[in-house]
Write a structure and sequence with these properties.
Elements lengths: L14 E16 L4 E17 L3 E5 L6 H8 L7 E6 L2 E2 L5 H8 L2 E4 L13 H11 L5 H14 L16 H13 L5 E5 L7 H18 L2 E6 L2 H7 L2 E6 L2 E7 H6 L4 H8 L6 H6 L41 E4 L2 E3 L8
Parallel strand pairs: 3-8, 3-9, 6-7, 7-8
Antiparallel strand pairs: 1-2, 1-4, 4-5, 9-10, 10-12, 11-12
Amino acid sequence: MTAPTVATQTEEPEVILRVRNLKKYFPIRRGVFQRHVGDVKAVDDVSFDVYKGETLGLVGESGCGKTTTGRTIIRLYDPTAGSVYFQGRDMAELKGKELRAMRRKMQMIFQDPYASLNPRMSVLGIVGEPLEIHHIANRSERKERVAELLKLVGLNPAFMNRYPHEFSGGQRQRIGLARALALNPDLIICDEPISALDVSIQAQVVNLLEELQEQLGLTYIFIAHDLSMVRHISKRVAVMYLGKIVELTDRDTLYTNPLHPYTQALLSAVPVPDPFIEETRKRIILKGDLPSPANPPSGCNFHTRCPVFQKGLCDVQDPEFIEVEPGHFCACHLVKPQ
């Protein structure tokens, strides 16, 4: 199936998540009276769609707002502004029992498998906790379900009485995945689930995610730094810079025809396994440091580091996020619609 675009609104049943103008600001307070003196603009006007059964990759530098976007979508953080429509319902408006019921359908796998599991709880308690919280099964039924989930993620059910410190990093991440699958969710947000793992274990976890997606019809938002891994697992890719999405398209178009200067710089840093191509490739080295989200630049956020910056335009006006060719969205003054 051809990957749909953000602008395609005709196939409504296939849209599982619609994010519009999402903002998440963290207030900066100072002084004895904790006066509000500014905001850290972690997510600043982000819009995109996620389609049922696909994997949307979300990439960018550390501190660009990828994790905050994921946590705001799932309502671990309350949004400052904007809307998140999941299966047609606005997550920002849900409270209490309604929010808890909707959370059964969307789960998250966290980045650090060492910090995201309670060291005082056994695997049975960790994986079975969502079932207990939502009053889905009794004790014996929970035990059966946990055994089933451990088998599903490639772990021995006999390990369910062990504790997190008795497992390797890859095994812990599988436990976290089993916990996320406990309630049969439709959407899973994978927050850099492989970045803390060895390379050989990374491949195993990614292959497992793909197998489960095919078996269970899951939809993923896959947050990562590793562009080669994102290309492997994602159908479409969104590139973030300083709280904003600067480019969004299908993975093949992004890697063969990147339009935004930031995307071009990111991809130029990805090593190519062919030594002859690697020798002739031109690296794009960005100047300066990443600006602070507490004090972002005027105009285009990227203009302070952009190799094709135009004074009087890029530093004055914030570019629109527009469709420059079918299915290819970009936010750059110098990229014109075709």
